Amino acid sequence: MNGPTAKRRAISGLAFAALFTRRLAAQTGSQAEEHPVGRVTLSQTQVSLFGSVSWGSGTLTFGGHSYRFRIRGLGVGGIGISELRAVGEVYHLSRIADFPGLYGGARTGAVAGSKEVQGGLWLQNPAGVVIHLHPERTGYALQLGADGLLIQMD
Q: What is the pTM of this model?
């Protein structure tokens, strides 16, 4: 599929990413002043060719316990393959049942070798749980788009 239809889809994907990033930034702008209630570590592989597929796993530390989880994702935009390893803080989580679910986020950047994503990545689910990741990507990829990540508990 090329021509006007492909251009409309690309523009729609970019518009979604821009709107999502602005909305999430407005909601999470004060997170740095708050105290996180949990921590996460994760690793993820992402393969992109205008659409993206990702998979991985991680650990949530919350309330003195560790919980393993799996990540599955789909996205729009980008080309290449990359590995992501990240640590991060969890905000607005009061019970473990609110952690799993679909998280939205936006991404931009280029990866050639190893690179830490400046400013980190902010993700949020419908329950209001926010994850601020400090990732380092390795691989070769050009990325611009939006992702949906499904977190499922093991």
A: 0.69
